[in-house]
């Protein structure tokens, strides 16, 4: 498979082969393609510097210029440097390249040395690290440095933050539950 279908297939294979992802949310069965124009962001060009060992990362790199890259926050909230070195793609979900009302699946990238400040959202979340080892912080669980192949979960409205430290971070993230169509918000 090639293009966006190949990217979706790589995500499905990872999702279904990983018990911690499967158990968090089943692979959505209501997917339908939604045509979206490509929207570049500065961070998407930074993917080229990563080793494409994981199939999902390799597929993302192959179609990066076809994806609708997003950046939820404003420069006032996170700073222009953060915006230039961060981006995500909603692969599937209410606003994704593939529509689903069952869950939301993201592919996300943060460059090295970024501080993703305290934020929260209604949906429950699980990160799956594919590259990098960021430090995750939470107001309700111990801090942890995630390694490739590991997950980190956050409950609904759990305030959390992340620091990428010395390596870029590339991940697959899933949202489930209430608030699926809402975006995260920076916490006070």
Automatic annotation (TrEMBL):
UniProt cross-references to CDD domains, sorted A to Z: cupin_DddQ (cd20282)
UniProt feature coiled coil, ranges: none
InterPro entries xrefs: DMSP_lyase, RmlC-like_jellyroll, RmlC_Cupin_sf
Record field: transmembrane: none
Top-rank taxon: Bacteria
Pfam families for the chain: DMSP_lyase (PF16867)
GO molecular function, one term: dimethylpropiothetin dethiomethylase activity
Protein name: Uncharacterized protein
Species whose genome carries this gene: Candidatus Rhodobacter oscarellae
């Amino acid at each position: 498979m090639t293009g966006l279908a190949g990217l979706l297939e790589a995500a499905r294979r990872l999702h279904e082969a990983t018990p911690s992802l499967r158990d968090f949310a089943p692979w959505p069965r209501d997917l339908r393609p939604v045509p979206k124009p490509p929207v570049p962001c500065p961070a998407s060009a930074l993917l080229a510097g990563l080793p494409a060992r994981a199939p999902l990362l390799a597929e993302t790199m192959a179609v990066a210029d076809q994806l609708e890259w997003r950046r939820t926050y404003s420069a006032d909230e996170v700073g222009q440097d953060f915006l230039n070195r961060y981006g995500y793609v909603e692969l599937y979900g209410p606003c994704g390249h593939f529509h689903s009302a069952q869950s939301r699946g993201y592919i996300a990238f943060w460059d090295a040395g970024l501080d993703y400040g305290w934020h929260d959202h209604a949906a429950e979340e699980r990160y799956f690290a594919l590259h990098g080892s960021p430090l995750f912080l939470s107001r309700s669980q111990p801090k942890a440095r995630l390694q490739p192949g590991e997950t980190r979960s956050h409950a609904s409205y759990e305030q959390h933050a992340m620091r990428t430290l010395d390596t870029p971070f590339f991940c697959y993230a899933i949202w489930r539950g209430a608030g699926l169509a809402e975006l995260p918000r920076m916490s006070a």
